[in-house]
NADH dehydrogenase [ubiquinone] 1 alpha subcomplex subunit 9, mitochondrial
Amino acid sequence: MASLILINTAQVAKQQSCGVLGVICLKANYSTESARPLKSTNLASLKRGTGGRSSFNGIVATVFGSTGFLGRYVCNKLGKTGTQLILPYRADHYEAIRLKLVGDLGQVLFHPYHLEDEESIRKAVKYSNVVVNLVGRDWETKNFKFEDVHVEGARRIARIAREAGVEKFVHVSSLNANPHPEPIIIKEGSKFLKSKYHGELAVREEFPDAIIFRPSDMYGQEDRFLRYYAHIWRRQFRAMPLWYAGERTIKQPVSVSDVAQGIVNAIKDHDAVGQTYQAVGPRRYKLSELVDWFHRVMRKDEKVWGYWRYDLRYDPTFKLKVAFTEFISPSFPVGDLHFERVEREYVTDVVEKGVPTLEDLGVNLTLMEDQIPWELRPYRAAQYYDAELGEFEDPLPPQYIQ
């Protein structure tokens, strides 16, 4: 018979037959294994499992705007690490039900809400320790203006989250948010960027420790950046109108997957509280270079299609086309073509020095050259043509600014 006696961090094995034999096993204490005070004695809030979608990592997150472009990526990355998700939705529930697959059975819950109904918002954040606000609009409608969504809506969610005792609040704004944006096509400048700036201030007033992200143009599945330029309605026959032919606009697009990973890392990082992060890609490009490259990827043979760019300033018919599109489809413009989108299209991305980026959160940024050809493959001309090996040259990548 043998008995084990635990003395501090040493284990002593005592055998009756051969006296006392001491075996000392030193145990290393890691920072992640150190004792921490329990914030709740509720068993449902304690971590369990070994990681993955079938586990629970102790985070209960309410994600507003989960059915949007960025929201689907954020929910997937949170769900695969064992986060319990509460996903508020409005309108048809079939739009949100597809997100049930991001977590294991019982890990993903849905709750109807309205942005102006405080009681529904309060119920959605009641049991959460993390709230993520991804609600936004690219154009105004008769029901929701930019001020209603980006300022008052963000303020309302942040205030209710603070009152409910939420530990971390993540708010997604926009790069180039400015109270006085420089006008290009619209006389007063971009209302979107102006409202995003005031939305940041409103969130800081209600939740001072909020984590704010400022993403640039995001590309990925079902985005509104690549698909915007790939849509036939954006072109004028075989030509692409751009402001100053795209030579004066600098863009730094970022992968939506990288932005989602940055949000997940910020939720787990204690030092991210109260920080503002610029979510931009690793390289800067002229808009003209990007649009030309998109064309090379989609068209393969430029000689056949005869593509060219020209200066939008000297083409009044394109502005009439945008006005006509807004008139016939005010709720969802054809090809995402509307004056607010055209205005923001020519705003140069400005990355402020001293403000942290996704790399400070440990995100390995994705190069556009590695991802865009795959994203634009469905838009290739004659995509069903079975080309022989080496029949078409690989499109040259865009030249980026050092």
